[in-house]
Amino acid sequence: MSPVNPSEDDAAARAVIDDSGTLREWNEGARLLLGHSAPDVVGRPAADLLADRADGLPPGPEQERWSGTLTLRHRDGRAVPVWVLAHRRPSGDDGPGTWLAVAPRYEGPDHHDDPLVRAALTQSPCATMIFDDRLRLRAVNDAMARLLGLPADRLRGLRGLRPTDIGSRSQHTELERHLRRVLATGDRHDMHTHLKATGESRAHAWHARIAPLADADGRVRGVCVSAHDFTEQHLARERLQLVNEASVRIGTTLDVTHTAQELADVCVPALADFVSVDLLDPHDHGGEPPVVPAPPVGLRRAAHRSITPGSPEAVAEPGRLDVYPAGSPQAECLVAGHAIVAEVPSGDLERWREWDPVRVRRVEEYGIHSTMSVPLQARGTTLGVAVFTRYRRPYPFTDDDRLLAEEVTARAAVCIDNARRYSRERETTLTLQRSLLPRWLPPTAALEAASRYLPAARSGVGGDWFDVIPLSGMRVAMVVGDVVGHGIQASATMGRLRTAVRTLADIDLTPDELLTHLDDLVVRLFEESGDNGTGEVGATCLYAVYDPVSRRCSLARAGHPSPVLVPPDGPPRQIELPSGPPLGVGGLPFESAELELREGSVLAFCTDGLVEGRDRDAEAGQALLREALAGPTESLDATCDRVLHALLPSGGAADDVALLLARTRGLPAEQVATWDIPADPSLVAPVRKQVVEQLSAWALLEASFTAELVVSELVTNAIRYGSPPIRLRLIHDSATLICEVSDTSHTAPHLRRAKTWDEGGRGLLLVAQLTQRWGSRHTAEGKTIWAELGLLGEE
Q: Which end of the chain is more exposed for a tag (fewer CB within 10 A), N or C?
């Protein structure tokens, strides 16, 4: 009946009895003891073997082990007093169990002249037992007898007990295997186990050291088992491991809810059977949690975790706000600033019945016997409370558990506070960023545009921006940029650069000149930052100007990715542009490039957050962008969505993303009229007549009166103060009429207020009053004065 070696079965009498009291097994040792063979007794009631019926069947159904002396009847009729040790063996299929009854042979007191016994008892400082080379018990000391819960004097005189006869079948079966291994190899072996000794309320952690015992010739003659109670060391190791796991697993993201869930996940089942994390609602306290909240306290469930799938014991779902009155453990621990342990048997539950009967019913339903409420505090601020609950684990929380919970929650509180502060700053930065970006793209005759901006999913909001800026002469500027760094500083710098670009674009600088001025601005911002060269102030930028009349586009870049061109009938391709330095380097030149665009061409501008990532470089990202842009022709908004879906991971981009798509339009030649004007004031009147005739051909006679006055003033000024050749150009679309007068003088006009008796000086003031806007721009040949008139019927 040895699970390891059943053939060695005659050293002790063994019998197996089922719950009904019927004998099921009978070994050779039992035959030698009582004279009955197995066929004679198997299947009969075990009580028939009792010589004294008053003894009855000793083990009760609720017991796991029983020992005592029984008077049994030998086959020849004599009574045999026998000391019996019985263990209950549960069934493997949830059926009825059986009892293993063992009657070891008694050989009198220990023989201390036995070298094996003497060596073991001399060398073992703790609970010790000795087995011979057939794994039969030879001796135990008093410490081991107390651990086993058996009389020491009885055990010292017994022979033939095996490990599986002494304790539970599962643990001692494993012990017997290790004993045989030591016998076979002669090497020492250590074994760890948890068991509850007789008379103890909870299991202890034991370290069993199994050592071979050799004779003078070096032959292994037996095995010594020494058991050491290392519960304290084991618990300390578990506590240290939990603290280490908390430091690794809590705070992996900067999301408050996710961090709270990590706290609950780490502590179940290592510390509690159910953990809930409730946070103070900052909206109730002016946006910041209070230092010490006053009851009643409103707490919003952030996360919970249970040892039972589905967390059926949870009263509140994540996101729900509950109010805890004074006297509740949650409110008490927040006011006290330390953990509060409450035990149901002590009567702490009664205070809950009045204000939360639902919780009381849940406590009674699941047998919750102990709770521990621990405040979440970080940097002098109270953030919420974590509640640890036990119902499956039978032991209440100890002082060590309280210290451990406070240590873990303190670490988690710092992570939650970091996430809270990050979320608040991110929201502030995102609000600032969106307020500085264009709310809508202005409609222009030159192009159709669509855009997308996505803040970084895991890092702080950066300084990416884009813009579409209407220029004079129906032209339009497109810009996309990326400021170094993240956070409010980057967003503020982005706002300053965007304003500067709009200002520089308004004076019609070429792309390379604009980037040069913008580079000077970034250098000054760096100098003003006062960081002595340690701060991050820099940016990349791409600036392009498209003219729908000539259908040419001029571009320059400062360390920014080149745009992608999608022709109306060809594959997307990267535009080759001179590689300018990033803004802020200072002193290095920028170069422009010019290309002709057919009507319907699409320009794709983006920041590096779209094409670069942790799993790919910029070149691979550009290839993906071209592939996404090569899809079917559709609206630009749909194309933007397709590009983002193709290039960005499901969890969002690691960096900010700005995307601007522009489809070009060409202005038909019949909507443009040009005249070369001789420098003769007497020819102004014929010019006005030609203008009126042209407006009549365009069916724009409603604007003829204003256009005559504007053309007359601009042409007259050019003749008086400019240098020939002089050229007049009219451009119109459905909403705007533009008058342009160019000459070779570089002197720019300006408004002035004429005095009462002055004969001149009122021309430009009159133009400013009659038009929507006016201005001048420098050209390679000189300058151009322009004015825009709104046409009647404009919606």
A: C
